[in-house]
From TrEMBL:
GO terms for molecular function: ATP binding; helicase activity; hydrolase activity. The keyword Nucleotide-binding applies. Residues 8-65 form the UvrD-like helicase ATP-binding domain. It comes from marine sediment metagenome. InterPro entries: P-loop_NTPase (IPR027417), UvrD-like_ATP-bd (IPR014016). Keywords: ATP-binding, Helicase, Hydrolase, Nucleotide-binding. This is UvrD-like helicase ATP-binding domain-containing protein.
Length: 66
């Protein structure tokens, strides 16, 4: 995923976005940055839902956001 693609996905907040990429492409970092941007823009944290496959993934995302 190029930096331009990354920035477009993080800043496109008008609708849900599907990101398809292989392992190690930066999907988790991208998701964390997108959530941080939503929060910075004043989105109520109760309006954001993240799903993770397992406890380790959940803790990893939590650590990135806190």
């Amino acid at each position: 995923m190029s930096r331009i693609d990354y920035d477009q996905i993080v800043t496109h907040l008008d609708s849900p976005t599907l990101v398809l990429a292989g392992p190690g492409a930066g999907k988790t970092y991208l998701l964390a940055d997108r959530v941080k941007r939503l929060l910075d823009l004043g989105t109520d944290e109760n309006q954001i839902t993240l799903l993770a496959f397992g406890r380790d993934a959940r803790q990893n995302m939590r650590n990135r956001l806190l």
